[in-house]
Predict the structure.
Amino acid sequence: MSLPVRATVTARVEAVTPKGDEGLLIEFLKTYRDSVQLVINEIWDLSEAPSWTELHTMFYSRLIGMGFRAHHVSEIYKRAKEVVESTRKNNGSRPLLKKLTARIHTLDYRLDLNTKTIKIAVLRDKWVELKLKWYSYLDKYLDGSWRPGEILVSYRHGRFYVYIAFHRDVVFREPQAIMGIDLNFNNITYTIINLNSELVSIGVIPFRGLSRALHYRKLAEKLQKKHPKNWRFLKWARRVRARWLNKARYILVDTAHHVSKRLVEIAREYNAVIVFEDLEKIKENNNGGRKLSWMKPMWCYRRIQEYTEYKALIDGIRTVYVNPARTSRKPPNGKKIKFINYRFVELGDTVTSRDVVASWNLALRGLKRMRGSRVKWSPNSPRNEAVKTRAKRGNPEAKKYLKITIAIHK
């Protein structure tokens, strides 16, 4: 029986404060930010980041004197230590915090999902109530299976935002099929096989998101070429360029959501494990010529993979990554393969595309990995849920729970 895996969804909701309480919350966020900066400044020059006990001894009395609650103080320790360790890991200079954001412990807020309000403890044991601008598509997290965890409160551009982390334990289904996915610029080809390596189904999901996004990118580049020296100083040019590039980004995000939703629907129908290509540094290499090099930066293959993962996780469907080397050149059914051109091949007495051959081989490799006696479905991966394909990725059991974060925007 599969062990439960924890899935976490973060919902971003805009919030409104009653008149008069806005100043209390802004004061709290500024003091919180300055306190985190204080801890960072004092531990930055130390050879090692202090332990929680050492941080408690150094800063607890001072922070409590500022009006914080005990759990506020512990979150400040945690945040400061995370910032210092991540900055040192990237060989950065001493960080300077500017954003007004505070992490709030579960005991320092009260969420009422019936009235869609949240009360937050601020300085000197005062409480501020926020009215949440709730969206209908968030109601699916109110069915009782999702539990709220810690929250983030942020203030920017004159608006308050609350990030609520919902989590629940998910048990993976026992698979009955394997679904190999081959990602391309204008379509996704999938091949489904059963656990006996027999072919079940082949299909293609077309999309035009990348070509539409590239159109807006081309318009932005033409504008820059038309005003090569002063486009940065022309307010109208900056606005037009930003509008086109934002449209391109929104198109890519919508396409990734649409395609990932369709893939999960198909996997659910066949109760199949999803097998992706373990693509590495695709955008950095120069294979494919100048045209493909221009298209690759906007090819959102990794976004599609990540969106498919968290949608699959919520449905209890596993996601696997395998090495894609030579998957479009090796015959998946043992028959002789003959290449007609860069796109089509003759497989035995059947003419098909190289995308079908690739997705078929990916499914077979996923099945082979699943059958391995020592293979474990691991929650520790750069893509959050995968089986390790290379030793450099470290210990598969380093994390107890899988944590996938979904930023839900208005």
